[in-house]
Design a protein that fits this description.
The chain is 35% helix and 34% strand. By secondary structure, it is an alpha+beta fold. The protein has one domain: Roll (Nuclear Transport Factor 2, Chain: A), CATH 3.10.450.50. Strand 3 and strand 4 form a beta hairpin. It is elongated.
Length: 125
Amino acid sequence: MFEATSRNKASMRRIYEEMRNKGDPSIAAEIFTQPKGVERFVSQFLLSFPDLQHTIEEMIVEDDRAAVRFSAHGTHTGQWIHFAPTGKSIHYTGVTLARVAGDKIIEHHTWWDEMSLVEQIGGDV
């Protein structure tokens, strides 16, 4: 049980520390059973916020379930959706819930404060 919990925590950390903070979306294939959407989203998002850094504020792992509360900060230097680059610093928070089997995340849902991000870069709300 302890070994599985440690392994599941390590899988969750890789999302934030390796894939996002080190800017390597290609490792999604090592972390997720269905990596294509994750890799595409992270790649596109990092084009808009290339210095984006995530901090795991809290992590709870029990059996095959994991919850992570995170914060992120960076600079809006690339086109994001229909928002031209502003050079503004941004900060947002979010939560990811996941189910892990073996060394892979088999199901995940992330909610983050997208509206706050839009407000910070001067978008209409």
